[in-house]
Description:
Layout: H1 3-22, E1 38-43, E2 50-52, E3 57-58, E4 60-62, H2 73-78, E5 85-89, E6 98-105, E7 108-118, E8 127-135, E9 142-150, H3 155-159, E10 168-174, E11 186-193, E12 204-213, E13 216-226, E14 236-244, E15 252-259, E16 265-271, E17 287-296, H4 297-305, E18 310-321
Antiparallel strand pairs: 1-18, 2-4, 3-5, 5-8, 6-7, 7-18, 8-17, 9-14, 9-18, 10-11, 10-17, 11-12, 12-13, 14-15, 15-16
Amino acid sequence: MGSNVFRKIFSFLLMCIFLSACGGGSSNQTENGTPAPEIIFNSGFEPASIDITNGVSSDITGIDDSVSAPNDWVNDLESHPNIGDYWIQYEGGDETMRSARITQDPTDPLYSVLHYWLQQPNVDGTKGRIQSNIYNNTNLTEFYQHVRLYLPSDWNILQNSSGTFEWLTLFEFWNNAGFTEEGFPFRITLNAEKNDGTPGSPLYFGVNAETKIGDVWSNRVWSDNNLSFPIPIDQWLTIEIYFKEGDSDKGRFYLAITPDGGTKEIIFDITNFTHHPSDPNPAGVSHFNPMKLYTSNTIIDYVSNNGGVLQVYWDDFELWKGYLGPE
């Protein structure tokens, strides 16, 4: 039995423990009287019940019977009272330039995963974008997401480059979005970064919180990078992100990573603004990208010109409302 089988079984058992402890809904209370965490949705991207269509944008529908409920992309995720819509956005290009699809796990072909693939810059020749959108949310002020991420060997091309970069986005959270009519735009962006131009130097995670001035995200509220955790390549990583809306004393952004076969590493645990500092009435994350691949044409072309493709794999996505994760 492959390691992926054990992972799926363990994930299922862990989910059952959480659901048992939490009573399966936010109406229950923890011992201190706060609402218990509520699982909104989870999926392992198994193809027997999931359909993904390609075009200007894509969608995932169906029920994933490889995991326990709530596991319906439409009736559980999009019908949750705090969640608006889910779809995959490209912004431009065609199938020769980019794609999102359900495909085989690169480490175990018996299982399916979500694959993002950027061969060419698909947005006006200047950048590339593939992202899952969870948009038009209501009062989503505290949540936890779990997803597994795999960066294949093509990422060694970036690691072995002589340049530096900080714009290679894998996750993004908008409170509020800069592309809507909402006031007080604010975002938290999580990137893979190369901070040292020495060929062979590793990639690290960096996080930025910014506000928008005019048409430019030019005001950095806070930022951090973790230079003690080189990003593993050719290894599945379990990513845990916790977000709590608040000011400089009560806002919280947390990222932990567990490499397969390794131990959990807390990459960031930041207490600071998670909304625009001037917003008098913040109302939660109206838009976020729980799985994203977004960067410049320079990075995409560099990987392609050196025999690779900028691509990532995703698996075992979970989204919870409320407090679940860090102590």
